[in-house]
Amino acid sequence: MGSVQPEYKNQATATLLELVKSRRSYYGLKAESPVSDDVIESIVRDSVLHVPSSFNTQTSRVVLLLKEEHQKVWDIAIQAMEGLVAAGHVPKEQFETSTKPKLNSFRAAYGTVLFFVDFDSLAPIKEKFALYADKFNPFALESNAMSQFLVWTALESEGFGANLQHYSPLIDEQITKTWDLPASWKLDAQLVFGTPTAEPGEKAFAPIEDRFKVFGK
């Protein structure tokens, strides 16, 4: 593959790709923000509005939690894990030395974005296009993943660090109850963000030649 830097017609293309390249998983985070809460809200709201979805089904649902509301998510996760320890499903030592410190590190951040998919809203499109009915749930997850990536990248561009977590279905019921969310919203991922306190780890790449091919050039 060639390594010559291309000349983009629009400089915004180079900026976008640089943001994609610089996005990383930050685990050392503190409860401070380099921007206003309105900026954060705008980033998340725009992702909900503008990320594409199959047949424009718009199945993603997103909840932004800041400060004390954010902390509640990880209190719920800690309590759920404590229940697993009490039931004998998770070793107590493992929880105390590994799992609990990790969950507390998430709690120490500034905010969490909860990403949901409303699969129930797909019923009409599944009926209309019955031949493809089994494809719409995966399509909805793909759209949701695009939202996750967009919010993650945009927050990092504004000076945050972030990491993506998946604690479903362990925390789902209590999340729905705590914020009185519709039962049809199915939790998919949790994006934790805050001001970085440490650099991310090294990023390793499998050979691009094994993952990317060009024909017709």
UniProtKB/TrEMBL annotation:
Main location group: cytoplasm
GO molecular function: oxidoreductase activity
Classification via Gene3D superfamilies: NADH Oxidase
GO CC terms of this entry: cytoplasm; nucleus
Keywords carried by this UniProt record: Cytoplasm, Nucleus, Oxidoreductase
GO terms (BP aspect): cellular response to oxidative stress
InterPro entries linked to this entry: Frm2/Hbn1 (IPR033877), Nitroreductase (IPR029479), Nitroreductase-like (IPR000415)
Location of the protein in the cell: Cytoplasm; Nucleus
Keyword Oxidoreductase belongs to the record: yes
The keyword Repeat appears for this protein: no
All residue ranges annotated as the Nitroreductase domain in the record: 20-194
Membership in a protein family: Belongs to the nitroreductase family.
Protein name, entry field: Nitroreductase domain-containing protein
Protein's organism: Penicillium bovifimosum
